[in-house]
Design goal:
It is a single chain. The protein is α+β, with helices and mostly antiparallel strands. It folds into 3 domains: 66 residues, no CATH class; 84 residues, Neurotransmitter-gated ion-channel ligand-binding domain (Acetylcholine Binding Protein, Chain: A, Distorted Sandwich), CATH 2.70.170; 185 residues. The chain has 8 helices and 9 strands. The strands form 3 sheets. A 4-stranded antiparallel β-sheet has the order 2-5-7-6, with helices on one face. Strands 1-3-4 form a 3-stranded antiparallel β-sheet, with no helix packed on it. A hairpin with a 2-residue loop joins strand 6 and strand 7. About 11% of the residues have low confidence.
Amino acid sequence: MNEYLVWDPVACDGITRISLPVRELWSPDIIVFEFVDDDVSQECPYVYVNHTGHIRWNRMLRLVSACNLKIFSFPFDIQNCSFTFGSYMHTTQDVKLNAALTFEEMSENSKRNLEASGEWELVTIMGDTSILKFGVDEWDIITFWVVIKRSPLLYVVNLLIPSSFLMLIDIVSFYLPPHSVDRASFKMTLILGYTVFLLIMNNLLPSTANGTPILGIYFSVCLALMVISLMETVIITYVLHHNSLKYRKVPHWVRVVVLEHIARLICYRWPEQDSLASGTQTDKGNQCEPAQGPWIIQPSSADHSPSHHPASIKGPVATVATVPELKQISQDLSALRAHLTSLQKEGQLLDQWCHVGYVLDFLLFRIYLFIITCYALVIICMWFIWINQ
């Protein structure tokens, strides 16, 4: 509004509006404070002057501004970028700014006419007029807040779904026998594939120093969980093979903590639970007892001729010399009994270590499954929050 450009249309042949070159008139230096690039849009060289003193200057503006992005909830993020219009030189004594339309009308017009690139969707446009104070001077400014939200379908299809498939395969791999070497090699191959996936998707994640998106944290935690699952497989394999091959006894605290408390916590049961709980008593009961001598054939002292009784049965307290063949059989039977007793003890120890390994495997698998479920629920909740906003 310029009060010096007012005329009477009746005295000027009914002319109510004229166009004049921009360089012939004074124009305020309205700038955008967040402007970060040169304006390369085509300028309009003329302005329209109304007989009431209103000047309309339709200027196209290609605005490249700086916006502090909050990418923590990427790709379900909603951004609020501000655009501040005001004069750089003229204070409120020279220039006063007002919006030509209401902010609701601006928002509706923008939604109808906006052509987005496809990644972002306009939510609303809000605004406010305020006074910028600096020392004793005051500047009149208008601030617009453009609220936009990202379309996450591209990132869900290219990032979340493939990662979920890999994590599902890693979860299913827990059902492989823990004493199998193929389980460890399978997990190592899966970690290698997930690492390649992270290298590929690194270009899709936003790179900024303001923060780390929760999706990146999710991928890092998934990789860490895969590594932990591989370490768990190594530990279980060590428990099942190394300790069992050395035939070490299961420590008492391991039996109490693992085979009793943890097994009860995860509802792990086995038929030999009672015998395992009293493993020391079972070992004592299976110790070798002193072997009695075999029945010995002793010739009769009355008559050594073949016509008399050829032999008489005596107990193990016989003092006469035994037959060499029977003595050898007695020694072989004693060695066989000792060997069978040793095998029984080794089998009991092997069975105890096997149950310890399976209990730890079940426990770590449930912890792993719980963490994965929590992360999945977080992503699903963020999805619904994004839809409702």
